[in-house]
Amino acid sequence: MQNPFENAMKQLDKVAKIKNFSEEFITRLRQPDRDIRISIPVKMDNGSTKIFEGYRVEYNNALGPYKGGIRYHQDTEINEVKALAFWMALKCAVAGIPMGGGKGGITVNPKELSKGELERLSRGWVRKLSDILGPKKDVPAPDVNTTPEIMAWMNDEYQKITGDKTGAMITGKPLDKGGSEGRGTATAQGGFFVFEALKKELNLPEKCKIAIQGFGNAGSYAALIWSKAGHTILAISDSKGGVYNEKGLDIEKLMKYKKDTGSLSGFPDAKEITNEKLLETECDLLIPAAFENQITGANADKVKAKAILELANGPINPEADEILYKKNIPIVPDILANSGGVTVSYFEWDQNLKNEHWSEKEVFDKLRPILEDSAKKILAKSKESNTDLRCGAFILALERIEAKITL
Ligand code: GLU
Q1: Where are the domains of the chain?
Q2: Which strand (E) or helix (H) includes residue 122?
Q3: Which residues are substrate-binding (predicted)?
Q4: Bridge partners of residue 244, in order along the sequence
Q5: DSSP strand E in 108-228: where?
Q6: What is the DSSP string of 82-114?
Q7: Which DSSP symbol is given to 332?
Q8: Which residues surround ligand 1 with Cβ inside 6 Å?
Q9: pLDDT digits (tens, 9 = 90+) for 288-326
Q10: What is the pLDDT of residues 337-377, one digit of tens each?
Q11: Predicted local confidence at residue 407, as pLDDT
Q12: How far is the centre of ligand 1, averaged over its atoms, from the C-alpha of 243 (Å)?
């Protein structure tokens, strides 16, 4: 497994060479403000106690309270969390929201835990970190394998410890517990707004053929939103593999099938496809919506999409970036493409602090112009410096952070 933090720093170095940022500033951004590792003892259902390793990385708060999700995964480790926290700092800057960057995680396969064990683990994470969390300090949210229900447990635990009743210490909560309308679909919906804003620039046809890697929160809603808009989803996968139909998949049926059977495999009217092959699908748009380091020096050459939109964080490594650039395959970078999630998280935080509840229409009416504006600015930055969209996004983000940071 490649070190995602090293990759993130390579991206930073590349941009520092293109644009003249001060050396002090770039040096400062090579380290998080703090990275915290905790051990969480959990009483298991069989009476034993198991210790889990957890993390919170507070990368930078020049623009506002640290903000970013919590990932539960068996491969989660500190370098992954550091990379994700760094990208959060840039992502919030790209979106122009008053939030800094953070990320958390626990090394665990949550599918192996009972619901009670999962709840005790989640509450344990908050107990160890309650001093540093808070609406004006550090505001977590969901990420891979963490759900609104988990956010509600965490908020409840925080409330018990601190007495804070705003609910603004964490976002992505269920609707009846202070969550925002639209937060569940926001990452995919935001990606779609960005896609629409850049479609012409990317030379994409009116109706696209699309392959999506990942069937979690981002991937499954992306499939639904793009197909409802008349595009064709040729292929989609989850962690175990995927399905392909050259005429297009019926996404609503597929969602129901996955819910009923727990898997995509065996879905009628479709061929099975591996995750590896999915990335090589001939299509207009490839949407990686799963994990880091999926497209690397080892397979970038085989990508046949006309353009890529990163709904996952860090799915393309720096080596692959170079190969795809030479192949003329534009990449809409993660810190723009998936920033709809954290932007609606910010809306949730704002609603909690003002004791308001906005309609889904209000939420998306506010989200769309933010993303269109960021997309436009990033395009201009990349053209100005004769570079790719990722560097354009980094330049916009770094300029915004540099303007506010105290060195
Ligand atoms: N985990 C999401 C991301 O990577 C959302 C973070 C948030 O809402 O704070 O952007």
Answers
A1: 31-166, 186-327
A2: helix 115-129
A3: 67, 91, 345
A4: 235, 271
A5: 138-142, 209-213
A6: HHHHHHHHHHHHHHT-S-EEEEEEEE--GGGS-
A7: E
A8: 67-69, 91, 141, 143, 171, 313, 338, 341-342, 345
A9: 999 999 999 999 999 999 999 999 999 999 999 999 999
A10: 999 999 999 999 999 999 999 999 999 999 999 999 999 99
A11: 83
A12: 27
Q: Which residues are annotated as a binding site for NAD(+)?
A: 187, 217
Indicate if the pLDDT at residue 1 is higher than 90: no
pLDDT digits (tens, 9 = 90+) for 131-166: 999 999 999 999 999 999 999 999 999 999 999 999
| Domain 186-327 sits in CATH 3.40.50.720 | yes
CATH superfamily of 31-166: Leucine Dehydrogenase, chain A, domain 1 (3.40.50.10860)
Place of tokens 């957890």: 54
Q: How far is the CA of 141 from the centre of ligand 1 (A)?
A: 6
Nearest-angstrom CA–CA distance, 167 and 149: 14
What does the block give as tokens for 63?
């623009």
- What tokens appear for 75 in the block? 């491969």
- Nearest ligand 1 atom to the CA of 99 is 9
| Residue 273 pLDDT > 70 | yes
DSSP letters spanning 198-267: HTTTTT--SS-EEEEE--SHHHHHHHHHHHHTT-EEEEEEETTEEEE-TT---HHHHHHHHHHHSSSTT-
Query: Would you say 316 and 310 are in contact if contact means Cβ atoms under 8 Å apart?
Result: yes
- Positive or negative torsion for Cα 318, 333, 210, 326: negative
Beta strand 34-43 pairing with 49-60: antiparallel
Q: Report the SS3 class of residue 160.
A: helix
Mutate-to-test residue for ligand 1 from 61, 342, 344, highest number of ligand atoms within 8 A of CB: 342
Helix (H, G, I), strand (E, B) or coil at 331: strand
Q: Mind telling me the catalytic residues?
A: 103
Tell me the pLDDT of the chain averaged across its residues.
97
Matching residue, tokens 């990722």: 390
Closest approach atom of ligand 1 to CA 142: 1
Domains 31-166 and 186-327 agree in fold: yes
Question: Residue 184 has what DSSP assignment?
Answer: T
Residues whose CB falls within 8 Å of the CB of residue 322, separated by 6 or more in sequence, listed in order: none
Q: Closest Cα to residue 127, out of 167, 154, 164?
A: 154
